[in-house]
Amino acid sequence: MATETQTPVIEFRHVSLWFDEKLALDDISFDLGQGEMVFLTGASASGKSVLTHLAMGLLKPDEGQIFIEGREIVALDESELVEMRGRGMGIVFQEDSLFTGLTAYDNAAYRLDEHGVEEDETEREVLEVLRFVGLDQDAEKFPEELSGGMRRRLEIARALIGWPAIMLFDEPTSSLDPISAEKVLDLIIRARDIQRMSSIYVTKKLHEIPYLATHHAIARPDGTVTINDVSSKIVAAPRTKVMVLDAGRIVFTGTVAEFEASTLPALTRLTRADNGTTFSDFYTPDPWDKGRRPKETILGR
Questions:
Q1: What CATH code would you report for 10-94+166-271?
Q2: Which of 10, 31, 46, 74 could form a disulfide with 42 if both were Cys (CB 3.0 to 4.6 A apart)?
Q3: Where are the domains of the chain?
């Protein structure tokens, strides 16, 4: 939990949500501290994606309160929510949400265009983030011209525009092969540590949790970035904790070591091959949409 003198960047207080008669989340209370990464896991339909949508203000709870950097968001109107997201939040959805008719550059620039950022500043920020994810040489390509791993990196680039203080990752490697997935994990580590982001990382791939928890990125004086295993004692371990959802309830919160040692039935079920995990079909609205979407044509810069 965050200290009394430090306001959590995200805080849920007794949050519950129903879809018709189905209880999706039940009395959820937790916080995300500044500079912390919370690993959120659980079986399919346990409420993981619903929780991230609540944190972005894409859904509103039936009960409870949600605070973003100390500001209660339940009562905010849509324009205020769009401003809050654009100012300091980013999300990478499980599903592909790229605009197929836009180039990589224009996909990454979309949020800035929506907020009326000047063209020169937009170009600087877009090229910076495309270089960060290794796509600066592919700026004029369309999503169909990119590999699955490259498209995922472009999704991350779009979310990282403006270097938001809060990042939500909803199973960002779910559809990737192992090599592409590792590249994405390293990219997330770099963003988390170099940009000092607070984040919630949703995953059903349990091997990702210890990897993200035991690797830390550092920037060298020459501008290069290295990722080191904390066992090398070159870097300190990142601030992390694990939270497990089961049927809409939090059944575990603790360290990665405590998670790995736990014998709770809800946790041991996650380690079995027959845990029934499937891709979510949860509808994903555009969190930065102001009532319009880009046309499926090439937009000029």
A1: 3.40.50.300
A2: 46
A3: 10-94+166-271
Tell me the CA end-to-end span of the chain in Å, nearest whole number: 44
DSSP 166-211: EEEEESTTTTS-HHHHHHHHHHHHHHHHHTT-EEEEE-S-TTHHHH
Question: Environment class of residue 287 by beta-carbon count within 10 Å: exposed (0-12), middle (13-18) or buried (19+)?
Answer: buried
CA–CA separation, 88 and 84 (whole Å)? 6
Contacts of 75 (CB under 8 A, 6+ apart): none
> What is the tens place of the pLDDT at every residue in 66-120?
999 999 999 899 889 988 888 789 999 888 889 999 999 999 998 887 777 888 9
Helix, strand, coil % (nearest 5) of the chain? 35, 25, 45
pTM of the full structure: 0.85
Residue 172 · residue 188 · CB < 8 Å:
yes
The answer to whether the beta carbons of residues 242 and 259 sit under 8 Å apart is yes
